[in-house]
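Example record

The entry below shows one chain as it appears in the dataset: sequence first, then structure tokens.
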Amino acid sequence: SEGLARRMQELKQFNILHNMETVVQRKSGDSRVVISTMGSVRLFGDDFGLVLMVDISKQKQSEAALQALNHEMEERVLERTEALRTANLELQKALNVKNEFFAAISHELRTPLTGIIGLSQVLQMSTYGTLNDKQLVAVDNIHQSGLRLLKVLNDVLEYTLIQSGSVVRQVSHT
């Protein structure tokens, strides 16, 4: 063709190679992607135009398949990231509900427990009359158990406050 002849003349003048990717229609009707390398060479005093055509259809198909796979993987990553974000928000809500529950329960239990501890102290001091030894042991058990339970409740409350970010626990080394 005229364009090819002109291109070959340019190549001959500058003695350069040129690569060009084109789609070639075959007689069978299917098309192929080829890369054409054109150049000129002087042999035995004559100039020759060289055209080398290599079928890169499979390479192009592989590249397209790889791009499709990359796109699919990016979509999966986006979907899973969104699913994780949603799950994380749901977990955060559940954690907040749990913390509020523990805070409410500990406050609800602390009030009557404080009364039990206070009443056991009053009984230990014989404010309402003298107690025998068995009664004093029982009242002391009530008092000590109440103090242990109060400590557990305070620890639970402190833990929920730390979990919610309301309190930062300071540890001192003595």
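Notes for this example: Strands lie at 18-25, 31-43, 46-55. The CA atoms of residues 70 and 93 lie 34 Å apart.
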